[in-house]
Amino acid sequence: MTEVRFTDQHEWVRVDGDEATIGITKYAVEQLGDVVFVELPEAGRKVGAGGEAAVVESVKAASEVYAPVGGEVTASNAALAGDPAKVSADPEGEGWFFKLKLADKSELAKLMTAEQYAAFVKGL
Amino acid sequence: MADPNEVLLKTPLHALHVELGARMVPFSGYDMPVQYPAGILKEHLHTREKAGLFDVSHMGQAFLSGGDPARALERLTPADVIGLKPGLQRYGLLLNDAGTIKDDFMFSRLLGEDALYLVVNAGTKDGDFAYIAKRLEGVATLEPRPDRALFALQGPAAAAVLQRHSPGIDALTFMKVVRCLVAGAPAIVSRSGYTGEDGFEISLEAIHAERVARALLAEPEVLPIGLGARDSLRLEAGLCLYGHDIDETTNPVEAGLVWSIAKRRKLAKDFPAAEKIMDAVFNGTAKKRVGLRPDGRAPAREGSEIVDKSGQIIGRITSGGFGPTLNAPIAMGYIDSAFAADGTEIDLIVRGKPLPARVVPLPFVPHRYRRAI
Description:
By secondary structure, chain A is of the alpha+beta class. Chain A is about 20% helix and about 40% strand. Helices cover about 20% and strands about 35% of the residues of chain B.
């Protein structure tokens, strides 16, 4: 069963079994503006929940992307290197950043559900 | 960081920006549009392809009058002010006594008028105006004009657009200035800008600003452009941003702005710290402002260190980002003069790692000014 959760740093994580796919939210993209570059983690790298995992750059500024949950990186979205605009166009689909093998599934419970995140964004 | 309690000033177009869906940010004490719904990339490319309208009403406008305001102003700038013919505009550096850059500004002599018209940067205007007024006390009178709005209409279609609202304006060539009507409103129009494109800057009384802006925005070629694209456009054009690429620690020679020091002034050495500046002209400076092109797509931002291939720090980036026209990262910074030659390979430290880059000539995108033939 697929479960999607959100962070207050505007990352999303979609979990299938013990595989987590991570990206940034539509709200994050709206705030950043046009994405011109992403730096993604290499497969094999271990990241902790809340740790710096990737960088997304717009015309104006660079922003860190944090791992919503801990684990070992298994893949990153190579298509973004040549076409970072995919992040702006489809942040919660084709614009995913990286995948990791979940270390501790219980970390998910600390993150927001879609409804909670929508309410959080509305309050910003 | 912006102080959340700071009361931000509004330009005469503030309500229009909000109506157009702009994202407003604090900038130099004003609540300004950083981008509109089109976004920085589209706004930038649109300005290079057609025309963009920028609200730069936050900048400082003033008139300098008195017996001989040109002679007076030459006390504070190494530009040729006295020799400026009526109907022309020029770029100048406002120097402090140490010969470093207090601000950069534009000055104009309007046809049939004794006063000079000045435009200075937004973030420095209060300090500049106080400095000019104090230093020229008794010889010239500075009259700030916060009641005036200022627009820039920039891009290859700017002339065709403005011609519809100010017939005959296309006869004005680069760095010329005239009083005329724009959409019926009295205006001071100069053929200049901060994008590297052909275009105009239009000063008019605040009461006419919104109506004239709406008239220009109604033209099919024109999009509103925010400060985000203004910055990426000027960086591609290799133009300095005060407070970043030049400031009170910079001398005009290392900044590559010697062209703004008139020959007569160099010979007379009659401007602030002239001996020091002329020594730098003849003997060179320890560092120089250069263009930088990182390999790959990762931008290097302001503050990033420039290092040689052995890892020794040889400079720092003062403006860096992404150039939409080039679809590549670009930067400007100061580098030890020994490394300033075009093509020199260096590294930029980005997130702790060396990013290969090379020194390149400025501008990154050729200027397309409409010069007199």
